[in-house]
């Protein structure tokens, strides 16, 4: 079965049920544009100059093949728009889902009371799986269409666009929210939940696994037998397993203490209090600390999978925080006294 | 060893024991990684690492350079708030190089403004070997040597070889702890593009009007290691 057919079937089955108002890749339409382009190319190769000119006048829809302006306009602007919409939709939906799973403050008590009457856990797992399918299907669709673009045009524009997507932080399979969703999936799997809930007939998503015992802790997502994505759970600063992880807006993960140290702020002030000129230690992008996200599910996963390590790190961070706050208030007192 | 420079420990700021513990753990991991998979031409020093905050590393002079056959011991000092402040690396012997000063320091911007906590000692040593091979002439520490490198390359090469022979020819045996998993030894084939050989080939292919003592630098032919340096410098 071709991917186009699988994707269409997926859209028919799932888009209406769970992902209303969510954007998706217009795979069929973009494929048609490429088909027109291919026809245009063959026309240009076959016809002499005069005929070709006439052909162009008759059908302005067919792209001028050397520059491929139509393709470029249709493709890359459309794909950028779609990818950013999908990324935005995915992140907001995941955020909403995870806020329900790990509520904080007053919501926690409401949630506990609610759980006495209704068991929402299964619905949440189902929605999590739907979101995973949504993001993987769309990511594969983008990947396939870019491959096709490169094949037809004999160019590397598709590959360049892929790397541009990464720099613009709209690469779907590199999103920290996907890691969060994977952690949520693993956290739910560890509790006793009916595994048959929410599986799709044409499910691409097969397996999410996490190994924290190895020298390099990894989370692996296997979309199919051939496609595997590995996400490192090592902090690039302390070179240890992430503890109390935060994702900066560039997508890089750090421990809270490490991120605060890199941004030269106290731990108790938090990652978001970093100055705007503070740069990501890995990619050196600036202004990435302001929209940092606390990875609660990933933290929960690490907490449950390696308890001793988590406790040890918690003790260390608390000691450091106490020391830092003492230092801070001492300096404030001295400042107020004019010393 | 030849004529060694005094390696005084840089003053350490007062830091909390927790911060020092974090630094010690990170340095321990880096040390293990260094034993496991050292950068090309680098290996551990002769004495065992007793203090995590002070290492000794040996850089073997890369082949096809004036430093070939030389053994360069390097002192590595880590601050107590590492990795939030950069380590200090000093060559313990005299090195005739445009980017190395009289105190054995290599002035690179990744040790000052462009330092990032995500950089590891392996990456820094890779930079060291890279610069040793392919000097950064846009910001030299020693202008006289840089000028000589640009305009009288053969004289520079001769002097650098003589200094290497004089100061850095004593062989050093690396010390590996008994429990360390030692990685593969650096290959004999140079990892870096042979700058000197490339320059000589360019000179021979050029017209006879260019004198051999004034070989122009091939600025267009940017090596992969220069690109690596650019990446590290952001």
TrEMBL record, chain B:
Pfam families: UQ_con (PF00179)
UniProt xrefs under Gene3D superfamilies: Ubiquitin Conjugating Enzyme
One of the protein's GO biological processes: protein polyubiquitination
PROSITE patterns referenced in this protein's UniProt entry, alphabetically: UBC_2 (PS50127)
Transmembrane segments: none
SMART domains: UBCc
Name the UniProt record assigns to this protein: Os02g0721100 protein
Protein's organism: Oryza sativa subsp. japonica (Rice)
Lineage start: Eukaryota, Viridiplantae, Streptophyta, Embryophyta, Tracheophyta
């Amino acid at each position: 079965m071709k991917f186009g057919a699988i994707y269409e079937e997926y859209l028919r089955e799932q888009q209406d049920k769970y992902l209303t108002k969510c954007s998706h890749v217009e795979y069929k339409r973009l494929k048609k544009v490429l088909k027109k382009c291919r026809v245009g190319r063959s026309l240009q190769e076959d016809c002499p100059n005069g005929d070709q000119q006439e052909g162009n006048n008759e059908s302005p829809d067919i792209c001028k093949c050397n520059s491929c302006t139509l393709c470029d306009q249709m493709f890359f602007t459309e794909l950028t728009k779609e990818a950013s919409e999908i990324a935005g939709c995915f992140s907001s939906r995941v955020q909403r889902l995870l806020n329900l799973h790990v509520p904080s403050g007053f919501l926690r008590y409401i949630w506990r009371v609610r759980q006495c009457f209704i068991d929402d856990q299964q619905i949440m797992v189902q929605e999590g799986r739907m979101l995973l399918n949504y993001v993987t299907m769309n990511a594969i669709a983008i990947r396939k269409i870019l491959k096709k673009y490169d094949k037809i045009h004999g160019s590397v524009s598709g590959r360049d666009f892929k790397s541009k997507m990464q720099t613009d932080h709209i690469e779907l399979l590199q999103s920290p929210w996907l890691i969060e969703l994977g952690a949520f999936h693993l956290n739910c799997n560890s509790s006793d939940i009916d595994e048959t809930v929410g599986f799709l007939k044409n499910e691409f998503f097969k397996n999410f696994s996490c190994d924290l015992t190895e020298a390099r802790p990894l989370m692996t997502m296997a979309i199919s037998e051939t496609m595997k994505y590995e996400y490192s759970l090592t902090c690039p600063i302390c070179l240890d397993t992430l503890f109390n992880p935060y994702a900066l807006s560039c997508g890089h993960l750090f421990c809270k203490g490490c991120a605060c140290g890199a941004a030269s702020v106290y731990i108790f002030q938090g990652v978001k209090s970093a100055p705007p000129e503070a740069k990501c230690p890995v990619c050196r992008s600036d202004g990435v600390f302001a929209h940092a996200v606390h990875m609660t599910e990933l933290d929960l996963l690490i907490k449950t999978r390696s308890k001793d390590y988590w406790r040890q790190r918690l003790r260390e961070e608390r000691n450091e925080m106490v020391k830092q706050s003492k230092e801070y208030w001492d300096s404030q007192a001295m400042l107020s006294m004019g010393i | 060893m030849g004529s060694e420079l005094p390696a005084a420990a840089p003053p350490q700021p007062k830091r909390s024991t927790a911060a020092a513990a974090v630094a010690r753990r990170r340095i321990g991991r880096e040390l293990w990684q260094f034993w496991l998979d050292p950068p090309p031409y680098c290996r551990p020093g002769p004495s065992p690492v007793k203090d995590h905050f002070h290492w000794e590393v040996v850089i073997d002079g890369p082949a096809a350079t004036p430093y070939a056959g030389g053994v360069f011991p390097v002192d590595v000092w880590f601050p107590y708030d590492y990795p939030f402040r950069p380590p200090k690396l000093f060559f313990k012997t005299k090195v005739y190089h445009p980017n190395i000063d009289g105190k054995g320091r290599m002035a690179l911007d990744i040790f000052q403004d462009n330092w990032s906590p995500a950089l590891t000692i392996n990456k820094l040593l890779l930079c060291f070997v890279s610069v040793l091979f392919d000097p950064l002439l846009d910001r030299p520490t020693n202008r006289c040597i840089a000028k000589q490198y640009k305009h009288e390359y053969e004289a520079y090469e001769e002097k650098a070889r003589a200094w290497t022979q004089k100061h850095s020819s004593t062989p050093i045996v690396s010390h590996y702890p008994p429990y360390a998993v030692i990685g593969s030894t650096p290959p004999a084939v140079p990892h870096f593009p042979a700058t000197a050989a490339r320059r000589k080939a360019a000179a021979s292919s050029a017209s006879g009007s260019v004198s051999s003592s004034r070989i122009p630098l091939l600025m267009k032919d940017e090596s992969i290691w220069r690109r690596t340096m650019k990446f590290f410098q952001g």
